[in-house]
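Collaborator request log, item 7. Partner lab (contact: R.S.) asked for a structural prediction of N(4)-(Beta-N-acetylglucosaminyl)-L-asparaginase to inform their binding assays.
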Amino acid sequence: MKLKLIELIICFSLTPTCSAVLPLVINTWPFKDATTTAWSTLCSGGSALDAVEAGCAQCEKLQCDGSVGYGGSPDETGETTLDAMIMNGDTMEVGAVGQLRRIKNAIGVARAVMERTKHTFLVGESASVFAENMGFLAEDLTTNQSLSIFTKWLKENCQPNYRQHVSPDPSTSCGPYKPQAMFQRRRRGQLIDIHAHDTIGMIVINQAGQVAAGTSTNGARHKVPGRVGDSPIAGAGAYADSTVGGAAATGDGDIMMRFLPSYLAVEQMRAGVDPSAACRTAITRIKKHFPDFFGAVVCANMTGSYGAACNKRPGFSQFPFMVFNRKSNVPRQEMVDCI
Ligand SMILES: *[C@@H]1O[C@H](CO)[C@@H](O)[C@H](O)[C@H]1NC(C)=O
Ligand SMILES: *[C@@H]1O[C@H](CO)[C@@H](O)[C@H](O)[C@H]1NC(C)=O
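Returned to partner:
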């Protein structure tokens, strides 16, 4: 969606007394249309939650990088499933879905979980039935693109994969699965595929200081069916607290979810640490245990300062993210050097 100039002008003229730095939209990766959509949602009177939902939903529609939305990251059976969450930093409510099937608008379902149930997290087939009951359209998430990724993987004897033991799986025609070591060797060569791990993670702080954060992803390519990553886990994929700020993460979710990097970054900011340093602390904590992990975190505080950090590894020395605020006037891509 293109940002309409008129919306920008309205946004500016309606809020002449605001601080110079809020509102703020920040998201992982150069997913510019998501940033723009979130900003124009704020400008047309939407809440921070509305902006996060609309921004991430835009990526779901556009299949950002093939790693968000339908038609990407087929699992071992060829199916695309989605993970998403949304968090309200005013009320500390969270809605999340994991391994969502058939529904393209995962973050919309996450919001429905938050607002239309007393639960926080629904998964799998039951989450999809819930979504259908809520009126979300059931569609096939498989596309020619995801089918061709899957077919190629089958032809290559299901390599790479996430198994650690040779274990022929009778439920698929593939295999035998090879140990994880083989996957890692391939990845240490030139085959590092960061697009197997991208996620949109977004933080929005509106004029009134409401923080919302959210994520959406189709998970890890060739994942074991049932696998849920960090993205829909509160404190891992994203976290928001309107007294402090917000954080969102992307990368190797299987590792990152063990460290709650978004929660850690927000707690750092609560203790007075600036956003860049808070993000670095979250990365450093993981790095201590998994020096080669792939991941990045974005952070923002209540005065509209923001930062990011990423773990340096071969082929990944800088992390791009998007920012939209009064200073930028346009969705601006920034880069941070990895540590
Ligand atoms: C998908 O592939 C089928 C069969 O090869 C083809 O007929 C169809 O047009 C393709 N669809 C798209 C959207 O490319
Ligand atoms: C946000 O971070 C900036 C940069 O470190 C700092 O100057 C500012 O005081 C912080 N704001 C809050 C509310 O902590």
